[in-house]
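Entry for the shared binder. Reason: the reviewer on the internal report wants the predicted structure included alongside the sequence.
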Amino acid sequence: MSRLRAGAAFGALALAVALAPAAGAAPAGPADRALDRALRKVVQAPGGPPGVISLVRRGGRTFVHRAGVADTETNRRWRPFDHMRLASTSKAFSGAVALSLVRRGRLDLDDTIGERLPSLPAAWAAVTLRQALHHTSGLPDFTASQAYQADLNADPLRHFTPPELIAYVAGDPLRFTPDSDYNYSNTDNVVVALMAQAATGRSYERLLQTRVFSPLGLSETSLPSGPQLPRPFAHGYFFNPGEPPEDVSEAVSMSSVWASGGMVSTPTELGRFIRGYVRGRLFGRALRRQQRRWVEGHSEPIGPGRNTAGLALFRYRLRCGVVYGHTGNFPGYTQFAAASSNGRRSATVSANTQLNQVMFSQPAFRALRRAFARAGCAALASRD
């Protein structure tokens, strides 16, 4: 990746078709056809991704919708088992780990940074696990640091340790008194993962395996530290006006975002995860109620409909109903994953370029956000 184009792509970190139904699935309905049209508009929009895929789960069946391609060299379509970067939907996985440990008494939502991570800045000591999960901590965002952006731009393949990520903002004060405001910060979820490690003496990667992957049957989901993607994968692209798309699929070390955005999975397993997570399978109903104490705030990028923020979870109020989930964007990929309140219905939308409400193609992001809403409504189209 060129230095100039890398800078444009990595700067955004300051902010993380035809219907092909599963065998035996019911014929397409109005909500399915609306989603198909929305996906086509995403890839046709100026600056839109080469391809997009949406998996809708309802009535125990999965419907696959897609437009465009997963690889511009071969022109092959995106498949449900292709690997991809999860970007900030990774934050929901850190929420799953933390809440599962709270259920088992290894952590408490009111545990503080000072108690669990005394080596971190004293100014952060009173911040609680709950506040970090809620993005009401006031912790400064390491990805907004000019020094971090310069170092990542200089060497996108550099290996960062979690303490090095924290160090970029360790000298900064809190942005506000905890619980007095909302600010989406990638530092929050790095701290959540470090608290989980401190409470158990196990690596965050091991906790993901035992607390999330194994219980939910996620064999193709991982948190790599380097730039490689498991094969097969959907290629991710960066667009510079007037130039051909640049393949950035394996251009960045995932250690640069770690627990805040480094996960890899497939559309199929992302859907399986979000259903289990929203249902509360990993931590039970009592904690699910605490998770759903909403504050004003939106996911990054902003999700469909009206957004409000819970603990590593967002509520999206759509015209057709309500879904719960997370979004994410990272060089080469943009993600949306959501489920119905009971976790029986779900929708994922994955695009192979980075889009958000502040940078890159605004027409394409508006089209993608509409596709998020259409996917959510397709999931809610029938009762189960």
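Summary line for the report: The chain has one domain: 3-71+84-379.
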